[in-house]
Specification:
With about 240 residues, the chain is α/β, with parallel strands linked by helices. It has eleven helices and eight strands. The mean pLDDT is about 95.
Length: about 240
């Protein structure tokens, strides 16, 4: 029996966590149950709001997330994926204090641009993720220009779309998120990173003209998890 296990720090939000797990399964080459990655999931939606904490308007989620990582570690996890972009604001503290390696979602997303001609990338994300700048810094390291949603789009399209997903109102979320993506394309973005784990659920609710231009950070993280698993001697077919 394989002993290596992936821990998933989730619940931020619950539907996004399930979406990550679905994509982890989809990205794993497998022909039977035993070929899939052993996963331990910590999905506690009561972790304090991440964007609010970053802008100084709420309790820090760090102690709660560290509790989750300790739970995962005690259950046998040897690496962690966080099914929330904004939570990566605390990445360094989570690694240092949690005692487990964490696969970074923005690093995973940036790998999607290897070998492409993309030079200008749009980013759809929470206010907290934008303020944290971990995407922008990684884009710059890859010589990618970053376009952000306007304040108006952020307030009237992006954030309401995220809130709709958290209420499981995916049709309305799609109606909000799609024009936000289209506006970034109109500004010259050659690709758009969906840098909030709720946004892929909104965009993909039904097919649209923007879908082909979108990089799903959630799926990119799932691929990184599969690569981690296979690099540690567990080859799936």
């Amino acid at each position: 029996m394989h002993t290596k296990r992936l821990g998933v720090l989730g619940g931020m939000g619950p539907l996004a966590t399930v979406d990550f797990l679905q994509k982890l399964i989809e990205e794993t080459p497998a022909t039977r149950d035993q070929d899939h990655i052993p996963v331990i999931v910590y999905s506690v939606p009561q972790i304090p709001d991440r964007p609010a904490a970053i802008v100084g308007q709420g309790e820090s989620p760090l102690p709660h997330m560290l509790e989750g990582i300790r739970t995962l570690k005690n259950a046998g996890a040897q690496a962690v994926a966080i099914a929330c972009n904004t939570a990566h604001y605390w990445y360094d503290e989570l690694v240092q204090q949690g005692g487990l390696p964490i696969l970074h979602i923005a690093d995973a997303a940036c790998k999607s641009f290897a070998g492409t001609a993309v030079k200008r990338v749009g980013l759809i994300a929470t206010e907290g993720t934008v303020a944290a700048r971990f995407y922008q810094s990684r884009f710059a390291a890859h010589q990618l220009d970053c376009l952000l949603s306007s304040t108006h789009d952020q307030e009237t399209l992006v954030l309401p779309a995220i809130e709709c997903v958290k209420r499981n109102e995916l049709a309305q979320a799609h109606a909000l998120a799609t024009p936000a993506a289209r506006h970034l394309l109109d500004q010259g973005a050659q690709a758009i990173v969906l840098g909030c784990t709720e946004i892929p659920l909104a965009i993909d609710y039904q097919a649209s003209d923007v879908t082909v231009h979108c990089i799903d950070a959630t799926r990119a993280l799932a691929r990184a998890c599969v690569a981690w698993w296979r690099s540690n001697g567990h080859e799936t077919p």
